[in-house]
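Working notes for the structural subgroup meeting. M.R. asked for a predicted model of this chain before we commit to crystallization trials. I am recording the input and output together here so anyone reviewing the notebook later can reproduce the run.

Input as submitted:
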Amino acid sequence: MCVAMPGRVLSVKDGIARVDFDGNLIEARADLVQVKKGDRVLVHAGLIIQKLSATEAEEMESIFADLREIMGESDENR
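Returned structure, recorded in token form:
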């Protein structure tokens, strides 16, 4: 199973968005969802699949942080 992670759009140019996932920067296609700098998004397999509200993104980030804690993963090991 694959999980789409929430990230923040840093820039968009020619259908490619640069997305920040807590310091991990990736490029993702922005063909399905129109996004702009600052938008919170879900990315799966290099494609932005959904925009999120700030509340949705914060809730998901909290859940992922809880999971990392349960699994004993520190921020240094991510």
